[in-house]
Amino acid sequence: MVTIKLLKPYYIKTSDEMVRVILAYKYFTMVINKEVYQFVPLDAKEVHVNRKTQKIENTDALFAFQKDEEIIHIAMSELIMLPDFLDQILSIAEPYFEKEQMGSNNQKIIVDNDNVIKELEEANIRRLIDKTLDEKDERAFKELAKLL
Question: Given pLDDT bands bounded at 50, 70 and 90, which one contains residue 113?
Fold first, then answer.
C-alpha cells in the first residue's frame, strides 16, 4: 500500500502552456508498505501540468524515494493512480490554470492571469505617457516609452 504523507512543492515555474511543480528532498514523502520514504532527486524532480487541459504531461517520468540505503523508483504513471497525489498536485497547480468564463453572449472567454496583468501594466504605462505629454516632460516620456 502506498500513500502520500507530505507533498509540498519546492517551487513552481510557469510558461504559457505548462505549470512545472518542482520537488525537492524532504518536501515529498510517501508511506510504502508502512515505511516512510523520502523523495530524492536522482531521476525526475518535477511534475508538468498542462495549464489548459489540467492534465499531467510527463507521465513517463521516474521518481526515486529513499529510506536508509534502499531506493525505490516509482513512475509518474503509477503516482497519478494515487488519488492523494493527483488531488494534491492539481490543487498546487490550480491557481495557474487558465480559466474559462462565459461572456455576455455565451461565448467562452479564456482568462489568463499573466496576460491580464501584462495588459493592465501596459495600459498604466500608456496613461503615464499621456500624462507626460500633457506636462511636456520629454525625459519622463522617453523613459516610459522604453517600457512598451
Answer: low
Contacts 24+ apart (CB under 8 A), 94-103: 94/54, 96/12, 96/14, 96/19, 96/51, 97/19, 97/51, 97/52, 97/54, 98/51, 98/52
- Distance CA(29)–CA(36), nearest Å, equals 7
Boundary (domain end) residue, out of 97, 112, 129: 97
43-79 pLDDT, tens digit each: 999 999 999 899 999 999 999 999 999 999 999 999 9
Domain co-membership, 76 together with 114: no
Asked whether 124 and 132 are in contact (CB, 8 A), the reply is no
Q: Helix (H, G, I), strand (E, B), or coil: what is residue 133?
A: helix
Cα–Cα dist 74/28, whole Å? 13
Is 102 in contact with 22 (CB distance < 8 Å)?
no
